[in-house]
Amino acid sequence: MGTKSSNKSLQKAKDIKNDEFYTRYDDIQAELNFYKDQLKGKVIYCNCDDPAESAFTDFFKLNFDYLGIKKLICTRYQKSNLFLLADPVRRSGYRLEITAKNKDDKKPVKINLKGDGDFRSPECIEFLKEADIVITNPPFSLFREYVDQLIKHNKKFLIIGNDNSRTYKEIFKLIKENKIWSGYTKVKEFGQPDGTFKKFGNVGWYTNLEVAKRNEEIILYKEYNQQEYPKYDNYDAIEVSRIKDIPKDYKGVMGVSVSFIDRYNPEQFEILGITDRNNVWDLSTKTYTVVDDPKYSDLNRRGAIKTNDGYKSTYARILIKRKK
Question: Is the pLDDT of residue 11 over 60?
Fold first, then answer.
């Protein structure tokens, strides 16, 4: 029993360590600069941040008047600190509230919470209900659950997430339905609890706030030809390996990389689905069973292109169609 409990604690510690990334002030500023008019007069809630260490808290405190926000609420999840996992005693988190009355205080009052500050707790959900916009860096491992809560409570948000999240069926469904989309910038580097920095190449912002670039059309200049745009053998669509190469004269279905989401204009294109093993979008035209050969083991999930040497499997592809 003791060993099992210890293993559970170690796994939990590993999960928290992998999620413990601190967003840099410069990255927050680079993205938030685009939303000033949408933040004015709003209650902002940062529900995955330690106010004592969070650059989100620092940013909103320093720019409280400039942004014209009404109120800032930050809640600390007490167990986010890796070393507290070994402590069996339940500890409370705390919240920090900043308004026009106390924004100039050097040390705003910290108010203890009844619970540990988990964003899923009833206590923190009450703060969520009060908020107009949620802005934070949620744990990557809980991204699906976190977004689901925001959608259920009909909240505006601006949050950080991994690009791979776009392929999750729950998140992709929201993207397809135009309920969530990408922001303006990428987050290249995060701080870690030990003081070091970790670089990423596939992390950015997700939001349902207005983003001007969603109104910009991708300029199409290439013309379709069968040699350059092969057809999948298991999807009625052609392969377009680079976004800039989307043909201007092709009216059928096209498979593009997940980075397309950063350029997606819902007035120019329609998202039909994504290549998926379970064919949840009912788009696949063939089910492969050649799983004995490791080269072909993922053909049920990916777009497959038939060649003289067998099949070439692509990475995950978003299936799109031009609207105009």
Answer: no
